[in-house]
Design brief:
The complex is a heterodimer of chains A (114) and B (112). Chain A is an all-beta fold and 114 residues long. The chains are: A mainly beta (114), B mainly beta (112). At the A-B interface, β10 of A face β4, β5 and β10 of B.
């Protein structure tokens, strides 16, 4: 399958700081990327859909000013968690749509806010 | 509202057993159904199904889709402890066929 690289795989930050997570499609161009959040033992929760060159579409209840998404190119999308708080601690996963029918996931980023 | 339902939610078997995981869906503008395996990190891709009745196979895993009855099954034969994971079913569809709708997952535990 196609390769999606997510970086960093884990990060610890202080409350009030911002954290940027990168999602790259390595061997294909992805016009659409998805950002998910996953709580322990729960399924993936879609946060937003990111389309290259346009604003991200956020799911209901997701604060777009807090979770800034930038899809700067066909191979890169970034998620910035601004003014992070302990309740933002979670596992964040991106996926990139490789064809009309399938998507592949990055490795995920475990964020811990202290 | 688009939804994907998986059953069972949890399953415990012994090595060598065969398991069948179920996924049913109600999703508008269906494009494809995908199965993923999630261990401790992000999900890894298993299968993508778009046509009814055509079995996809990879080693001990196989999957098939029934678009008339709106479900898919994932079979694992001769299970091994390394098969222990959460198996996620996702359907691509929704508005403009752009949205992935995930099921809650089936947590499979294979005991030695």
């Amino acid at each position: 399958g196609a390769v999606v690289s997510q970086h960093p795989s884990w990060v610890i930050c202080k409350s009030g700081t911002s954290v940027k997570i990168e999602c790259r499609s390595l061997d294909f161009q992805a016009t659409t990327m998805f950002w998910y959040r996953q709580f322990p033992k729960q399924s993936l929760m879609l946060m937003a859909t990111s389309n290259e060159g346009s604003k991200a579409t956020y799911e209901q209840g997701v604060e777009k000013d807090k979770f800034l998404i930038n899809h700067a190119s066909l191979t890169l999308s970034t998620l910035t968690v601004t003014s992070a708080h302990p309740e933002d601690s979670s596992f964040y996963i991106c996926s990139a749509r490789a064809t009309r029918f399938e998507a592949f996931f990055g490795q995920g980023t475990r964020l811990t806010v202290v | 509202e688009d939804k994907v339902v998986q059953s069972p939610l949890s399953l415990v078997v012994h090595e060598g057993d065969t398991v069948t995981l179920n996924c049913s869906y109600e999703v508008t503008n269906f494009r494809s159904l995908l199965w993923y395996k999630q261990e401790k990190k992000a999900p890894t891709f298993l299968f993508m199904l778009t046509s009814s009745g055509i079995e996809k196979k990879s080693g001990r895993l196989s999957s098939i889709l029934d678009k008339k009855e709106l479900f898919s099954i994932l079979n694992i034969t001769a299970t091994q402890t390394g098969d222990s994971a959460v198996y996620l079913c996702a359907v691509l569809g929704g508005n403009y066929g752009q949205n992935f709708v995930f099921g809650p997952g089936t947590r499979l535990s294979v005991l030695p």
